[in-house]
Amino acid sequence: QSDLVFRTGATDSTSFGTERFRVDTNGNITMPSQPAFYATPASVQSDMANNDSSVTVAFGTEVYDVGANFASSTFTAPVTGKYQLNVSLYLTAVDSAASYILVGILTSNRNYINILAPKYASDPAYQCVSLSVLADMDASDTAYIWYQQSGGAAQTDVQDDSRGSYFQGFLAC
């Protein structure tokens, strides 16, 4: 038995055209052209603003980008569908005097927000903030990550990829 392969632009199903999806003999389906990305900060983003303004988190290193839909820290949906989007920010020097810190995934349709109220006895050396959503996006809609802090000192840093900060996503359905 051999795998069932679907191709576009093929004159026969065994050797020409671009593979779009494959069903192997165990029923596993792979789609090598399915939109997906994984990006990390290229460097530390230091001293995030504390004046209640939104700051776009910079993701300058693409680990992978199937379909070339990620650029300038922003994902652009190539087709209408539901996209699984995930972010994790490794924060250091979090200021316990801040009223709150918001980390969110902003899409063209809606905002997804995680709130942190860092009311600790002293400034924590590190804090991880994560958020995962299944977002409905239309073709050409965008998604990016933002940070917002109210009060306290502008001292919080978003660490780079060596510490585990990332933004990733894929077309789920």
How would you briefly describe this protein structure?
The protein is mostly beta strands. The protein is 0% helix and 50% strand. The radius of gyration is 20 Å and the shape is elongated.
Our count of helices gives 0
What's the Cα radius of gyration?
Answer: 20 Å
Would you identify the regions where 5 or more consecutive residues have pLDDT less than 50? none
Helix content range of the residues, please? under 10%
Biggest sheet features: 6 strands, antiparallel
The H-and-E topology, N to C, reads as EEEEEEEEEEEEEEE
What do you see in this structure?
There is one protein chain. With 173 residues, the chain is mostly beta strands. The protein has strands spanning 4-8, 18-23, 29-30, 36-40, 55-56, 61-66, 70-71, 74-76, 81-92, 100-107, 111-116, 126-137, 142-150, 157-158, 166-171. The strands form three sheets. Strands 4, 6, 9, 12, 14 and 15 form a six-stranded antiparallel beta sheet that branches. Strands 5, 7, 8, 10, 11 and 13 form a six-stranded antiparallel beta sheet that branches. It is elongated and about 65 Å long. The two termini are 29 Å apart.
Secondary structure elements and pairings:
Elements (H helix, E strand, L loop, with lengths): L3 E5 L9 E6 L5 E2 L5 E5 L14 E2 L4 E6 L3 E2 L2 E3 L4 E12 L7 E8 L3 E6 L9 E12 L4 E9 L6 E2 L7 E6 L2
Defining key terms:
173 residues, mainly beta, six-stranded antiparallel beta sheet, 50% strand, elongated
